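Predict the 3D structure for this chain.
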Amino acid sequence: MRLRRVFLWTMIVSLSLAAVLGIVAILVPGFGRTQDRVLITSLLVGAFSLPALACSIVLGRKKVIWLMHLGIGSSLLALTLWLVLVWTNLWHYRPGVDWEEIISKTALPFTVTAALAMHIGLLTLLPLMRPPYRLVRVITIACASALGGLVLIIIWFEVFEDEMGKALAVLSILTACGTIVTPVLAILDHLQRRGSRESIPSRVSIDLTCPRCGMRQTLPAGTARCAQCRLRIDIDVEEPRCECGYLLYQLQGDTCPECGRILRTPTTAAHGQPSTPPK
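Done. Predicted structure below.
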């Protein structure tokens, strides 16, 4: 947790410093090439701070942890390589070597990886309960991954044919459509689950004993505080539902009436043992 805070504050300070330097370079003329380098640095720091921040948010939610670490590392490496390309004259060290091409081709895979990790991470944060909606997300992630791989192939091997152009256009359209449609499906899924009839009111009150002071009291569901010691108590009431959002309270049988999914209910437990209905 401490390391994550240090990273986030470092990113905030770096982004703020880059913004200040960019503003100074715009308002104070006479820097020549240095002015252009400062402006490009500000743009690069801002651009690569976005995937790093997005991956940090997804990492805090414990989603695709390995990919988020890869995205943060790729963002830092790509930013470093692009800054080296902006601020140094490497061709002076070994004339005849195209350092610009070498560094740019090395930075491109990290750039694509950072952008792809941010895209996948943000999509995984969307709460999709229905299997068809999840399938749309999976297809979108697959198209985005294929698009990134195709871009790298075209740049690395410097080949571009008509078929590649068509595939690039198709994958771009599918990725863009899926990226727009998936959040819309998440909203629809939430509205459908919220609009379905509940067996108990969402603001039900719970009789409980405060774990700190031992005072017995009645608190509403949600965030509340003990009347005596002011301890914060979060009460979350969630009824069992199928993955499609159908309420399973007092369900007769072991199949969801809405989507047909086979459920494990207290009456259909394995080996005669009762089980808890899925949330």
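The chain has four domains: 1-90+100-125, 127-195, 205-235, 239-279.
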